[in-house]
Amino acid sequence: MPQKISNHQQSSMYEFDRVGNDVARYIQSTSEDKYRIDVIVSPKTKNFDYVKNVIEVFLPVGFPGSVTADYLPVSPTSAILLSVLQDSMGRLATVSFAHRLGTSIEPECKMYRYAADIFNDSAMILDCLSPIFPRLWRLPFWCLSSALRSMCGVAAGSSKASLSAHFATQGNLGELNAKDSSQETVISLMGMLSGSLLLPYISSQKITWFIIRKEYSYGSLRSSIWHLDLPSPSDISQKERIFELDGVLRWKNSSALGYCKLGVSLKSILDCFGCSNIKTGSYSNLHSHQFQQLLNIYKDSGYILFYNKSQRTYLVAIKSHMKSEVEVHLKAWIQALCLAKFGLGSDDQGSKSASLTKAYQHTCKFADHLVDGVISSPSFAKLGWNLETSAMETIPGTRFLERLMMDET
């Protein structure tokens, strides 16, 4: 059993975003048999929350700390109102798509590059079908096609940048993009000429040519080998799924075992233990000091993990000042996968709490030993693994820091 905090000692945890701005403060306190956690939201975050949410739609995550000082001068804002509804819908789709899915394009660049082709083809199909509908129905189709075309632009441009950075190995990123544009021009010209020659002979309404186009696009993406996976990047590139749910946990080729979210806030984990006070936001009378017990389990780890049974999701809050976030992400992901595979971490409260604690402890140690052993192996680096950058965190995550405060009285 974990040791309870004495009456003359408090524990405080600080949560801040990736840049270092204060988000919230969590203060744990005990009084006899009661256990309480107070949540103090940063005044700056609390007072400007609505304004910040609006501004974050148009700025990168962590602005201004995540960009250079010359970002604003070279990024003029488009404040002119569009007079055409179709163009307005396209702009709104661009902003919404980049805001909601911008951070997940880098880890899933293959999926979004393939999705860009589907968005573009769907927009062209809607434009071709719009004349057969009544006049009142055409405007919604035009607006939808404009939105799809805008989504295609965001997904294609962002994913292409990631793919180009992967292909360029000798500092030739600019040349690679220039030659890629030339290749696209030639291919488009050849496609137009071929289409002009084949058009008189194609009268069937089957989707054969559509499927061929999608298969070529899908095959080109799968053939892109990423030097990030074991046992062999070429083998994994043939097995990976282009369209996959974010954070899904699978064991080899099995069905989805659950989900994992990296970089969640402490509030997301505290909500699993009980409801907070609507007015104060505090968590009081938590059952059996469960949250403190969870902190004790992961006191030597770079994260804390808890299973949200209602959402079938393993929530991972990451600690600050970790030497390598790549190792932290891998350890948390492997532990979540082991818990999901062997049905651990999802027991109900009560008599099984002891076995649940052991499951968390054993899988945490297993993940630590496995990741430490693999990363320290010389053969691991020879396979082309990138140990400097992690692409597993697809949300603007937060970090937290725990500090002990001694009572002066």
**Number of strand elements:** 9
Task: Count the DSSP helices.
Answer: 13
Q: Could you tell me the radius of gyration in angstroms?
A: 26 Å
Poorly predicted ranges (pLDDT <50, ≥5 residues)?
A: 1-5, 76-83, 225-229
- Give the biggest sheet: 9 strands, mixed
SSE order: EEEHHHHHHHHEEHEHEEHHHE
Shape descriptor reads globular
Helical residue percent band:
40-55%
Q: On the 0-100 scale, what is the average pLDDT?
A: 74
Helix-strand makeup class: alpha+beta
Beta fraction: 5-15%
Calculate the terminal CA-CA distance, rounded to whole Å.
28 Å
Structural description of this entry:
Keywords: Membrane, Transmembrane, Transmembrane helix. It comes from Erysiphe pulchra. Its main location: membrane. With 409 residues, this protein is of the alpha+beta class. It has a domain at 9-51 and 246-406. It is 46% helix and 14% strand. It contains 13 helices and nine strands. The protein has helices at residues 43-47, 49-56, 85-101, 109-129, 135-167, 173-198, 208-222, 233-239, 266-270, 290-297, 325-341, 353-375, 378-382, and strands at residues 9-17, 22-31, 34-41, 248-249, 258-262, 283-284, 303-308, 313-319, 398-406. Strands 1, 2, 3, 4, 5, 6, 7, 8 and 9 form a nine-stranded mixed sheet that branches. A hairpin with a 2-residue loop joins strand 2 (22-31) and strand 3 (34-41). Helix 4 (109-129) packs antiparallel against helix 5 (135-167). The protein is globular, with a radius of gyration of 26 Å. The protein starts with 8 loop residues before the first strand and ends with a strand.
